[in-house]
Amino acid sequence: MRTLFPSTIFYLFLTCLTLTGLTAPAQAGSWSALSQAGDRDCALLFEGIIEKGDLTRASDTGLLDSFGPRICLNSPGGSLAEVLAFLEAAEGQGGFHFGTRIRSGEECLSSCAILFMFGQAYGANSPYPSRQMEPGARLGFHSPFIRDGATPAASDAEVFRVALQVAKLLADRSYTAVTTAGPALPQELLALVLGTPSGVMRHVDTIGEARLLNIELLQDLEAEAVFADQRDSIDRLLKRICISSHTLTYRQHMVVEGYDYSDLVRRATDPESLGPNHQVLVREREPAQGFAPEKLRAVLTGPGYFLPGWYSVGSQMYCRVELTLEQGSGGFTVQSYQVDFDFVNGADLTRVPEPTTTINAMSGGVLPLDTLYAR
Q1: How many CA atoms lie less than 13 Å away from 27 in the CB half-sphere?
Q2: How many C-beta neighbours within 10 Å does residue 358 have?
Q3: What values do phi and psi take at 159, rounded to 5?
Q4: Domains in the chain, please, with CATH?
Q5: Smallest Cα–Cα separation from 247: which of 260, 231, 234, 233?
Q6: pLDDT of 75-132, one tens digit each?
Q7: Is-contact 4 191, C-beta < 8 A?
């Protein structure tokens, strides 16, 4: 997955006329209502190939009149113009909001994946990204197909108009903060779509990449993992969390050429990051008391923690980790965790410092970033 220069982006769109899945033919697109077990469940299901009018029919017939319904998607893709028309209707006068989900054993590919990424839900004051995947769900992206003459196509001018609008929509939503959680779309999405050849399907199937794309995984594999309550095991866990979190936080600097997820995985799993040069300086345990859970706090240093772009001793940072633990058979599980970084110079590292807001860190690494989300 590479970040593309603007000239490359527009070249790709100039030659692209439709966005359809790479799978075998499927049924035409249709809507159906679902029984909800709770407010977060899907109220609607769209499945089948996306063709003209298939998506917008839901708003025309009142299916989306309820406040912020969640839509389950099961589609190999189809008309990119229809996805654009649906998204324009959602943001227009009298528009609507919707969350998205892909259920276990089902798929959302190609133009369906674009639609999936626009899922939002409402909090107390404003919308926030809300796109969910169950274990075993399949989400796949690729760049648009070049016309092959197999089916009638719209005029080149119309296709070019749609392509530019979609490109602008993806760029705008990855730049403008329209939700309390920041931009509606992650900055990686445009490169993910346009950097994948049209003849290849790029599946998002690891917990690390789902985190980068702000996709909610409905099974928390990290919270289920059991770790031995022994010093060596704990130190390996702390080191992996710190180097993974540093890699995610400064991911623009951790790639060879543009954005590439495999580069991030390589850095986060480099054996040297778990070696003796990465040290756990301080460990503090706070036992569970009443309703307060057990906590483990630690400070780590090493050559992997630095502010990219600074070429001085002052760039060296420490990593602070705070884990909420739950004891069980065979060891403990990590129910939640927080990571932050700050500069070594002037810091008292004989104890665990208070949390810092110097760096807005992205946490990861209880499990390796390339852990597959498939059960």
Answers
A1: 7
A2: 12
A3: -65, -40
A4: 6-217 (3.90.226.10), 224-343 (3.10.450)
A5: 260
A6: 999 988 899 999 989 887 777 889 999 999 999 999 999 999 999 887 767 778 899 9
A7: yes
- CB burial of residue 100 (10 Å; 0-12, 13-18, 19+): buried
Q: Which two tokens stand for residue 85?
A: 């028309």
How far is CA 287 from each of CA 225, 237, 306, 350, rounded to the nearest angstrom? 20, 19, 32, 21
Pairwise CA distance, residues 37 & 54, whole Å? 26
**What's the angle, vertex CA 139, arms to CA 254 and CA 200, rounded to 5?**
75
Q: Provide the residue type at 157 as one letter.
A: A
The larger pLDDT score, comparing residue 145 to residue 345, is at 345
In terms of average pLDDT, the best of 1-10, 267-276, 285-294 is 285-294
Distance CA 169, CA 194 (A): 14
